[in-house]
C-alpha cells in the first residue's frame, strides 16, 4: 500500500536507479540567529551520519541550500534536521531553512523543489510542519511532500505539527538504526513505539 497526497502525483513516480552513496545529512544550519539554533538537531545529524556507511555530514554553515541543489542527486537518503516553515496562503513559498551563501538565500522553497532532480529512496524532513499542504486545483496538495515526489524522491518522512528538538532527535536516531535492519515502514513504526 502506498499513500500519495493526490492521484496526480503518480506521473512523477518513476523507477530510477538508486545512487549507491548512502546519505546526505544536513543539521542545525547557521541561520545567524542563536534563538533558532537546534542543539538536538545537530546531535541527531552527527549520530545518524556516524551510524550510516558512506555518509556526508553538513553542519551549521556547511548545511547550505547550494549543497542540496548540487549534491542531493548523488545520495540514496537525504536527511534534513532543520527548521521548516509552512505558509498556508502561499504553500510554494514554504521552505526548509538552511544556511545562506553567496549563491542562495538559504530558503529551500517548495517551488524550488520542482526544479531539482533527485534519485533518493528516502527524504526525511526532521523539521516542523513539513507534511502540511494546501489543496489546490482539485485534488492536488501543494507542499513539501508533493515537491519532493516531483523531484524524484520515492518516500518522504515528514511531520504535521511543530516538533520538539530533543524528542525528534531520539526518534530519528532510532529510526535510522532500525533502517539498517528492516524496511522503511517497519523502521519508523518501531521507532515511534
Can you give a write-up of this model?
By secondary structure, this protein is α/β, with parallel strands linked by helices. The chain has helices at 39-50, 65-71, 110-113, 144-151, 165-179, 184-192, and strands at 21-29, 55-60, 75-81, 83-85, 95-97, 107-109, 122-126, 133-136, 140-143, 156-157. The strands form three sheets. The chain has a five-stranded parallel beta sheet with strand order 2-1-3-7-10. Strand 8 (133-136) and strand 9 form a beta hairpin. The protein is globular and about 40 Å long. The two termini are 21 Å apart.
Question: Which descriptors would you attach to this protein?
Answer:
single chain, alpha/beta, 5-stranded parallel beta sheet, 3-stranded antiparallel beta sheet, 28% helix, 24% strand
Structural class, from secondary structure content? alpha/beta
Rounded mean pLDDT score: 86
- Span between N and C termini? 21 Å
Q: Count the strands?
A: 10
* Total helical elements: 6
Largest sheet, in brief, is: 5 strands, parallel
Q: Gyration radius, to the nearest Å?
A: 15 Å
Helix % is 25-40%
Strand order of the largest sheet: 2-1-3-7-10
Low-confidence stretches: none
DSSP strand content: 15-25%
Give the H and E element order.
EHEHEEEEHEEEHEHH
Overall geometry = globular
Question: Nutshell version of this structure?
Answer:
This protein is an alpha/beta fold. The chain has helices at residues 39-50, 65-71, 110-113, 144-151, 165-179, 184-192, and strands at residues 21-29, 55-60, 75-81, 83-85, 95-97, 107-109, 122-126, 133-136, 140-143, 156-157. The protein starts with 20 loop residues before the first strand and ends with a helix.
